[in-house]
Design goal:
This protein has helices at residues 3-29, 200-205; strands spanning 72-73, 79-87, 92-99, 105-114, 123-124, 135-137, 142-148, 157-167, 177-186, 192-193. The chain has two helices and ten strands. The strands form two sheets. Strands 1, 4, 6, 8 and 9 form a five-stranded mixed β-sheet that branches. It has 206 residues and is α+β, with helices and mostly antiparallel strands.
């Protein structure tokens, strides 16, 4: 083989090698067979938290039940009234009022007791609760108070009946309720009355 022919064969082989080495790079440059990176998985949407349960219904009434704001003082139009002899030696009487209405009322403070045509009224004995803590009477329920008499000391006289009105802490005009009180001796500083309570013994021992 001549020197010229051998040189031509060598150049042909080198050219083929050069084309093979450049081929992939050119394809990549042309955007041919490049590998596309996998898309990253999207984050799962967050689930909104459930709203917290609202607290149980609360009352705006402070210390007491809302219904108590609608309970008014008892007047003589709401109750019946009786007086019964409790202690003959002192002519003391048990006073009783019973709620005859169809709704609750409060027996406030002390009963206002007068003695017929005699001046004055029974003095209050013992402390009474305030209006918010006053005795609540449902329909048909009763409250009691003790009216203290005394021995005849020549300063007064015996009366056969008394009149009673309720303390309403208002200027409400009331019709007095009457009860018979045989042997009740009335004299200055002798007769006193307890506040309304829900127990007979307490009414007579205060």
């Amino acid at each position: 083989m001549s020197t010229v022919r051998r040189a031509a064969l060598v150049l042909t082989a080198l050219s083929a090698l050069a084309l093979t080495a450049c081929g992939p790079a050119e394809d990549d440059a042309a955007g041919g067979t490049g590998t596309t990176p996998a898309a990253s998985p999207s984050a799962a949407p967050s689930t909104p938290s459930a709203p917290s349960a609202s607290p149980a219904g609360s009352s705006s009434s402070g210390g007491g039940s809302p219904a108590d704001h609608d309970v008014f003082p008892c007047s003589t139009y709401d109750v019946t009234f009786t007086a019964s002899l409790a202690e003959p030696t002192t002519s003391s009487y048990l006073l009783r009022v019973t709620n005859k209405s169809t709704k609750a009322c409060r027996a406030l403070g002390h009963p206002v007791v007068t003695f017929g045509d005699l001046d004055g009224q029974a003095t209050e004995r013992g402390a009474a609760p305030g209006i918010e803590d006053a005795l609540r009477l449902e329909p048909g329920e009763s409250a009691y108070a003790g009216l203290m008499g005394g021995a005849d000391d020549g300063r007064g006289r015996t009366v056969g009946s008394i009149a009673m009105t309720m303390n309403t802490e208002s200027d409400l005009e009331q019709t007095p309720l009457h009860a018979t009180t045989p042997g009740l001796y009335v004299a200055p500083d002798t007769n006193s009355v307890t506040p309304w309570v829900n127990d007979v013994e307490d009414a007579l021992s205060l």
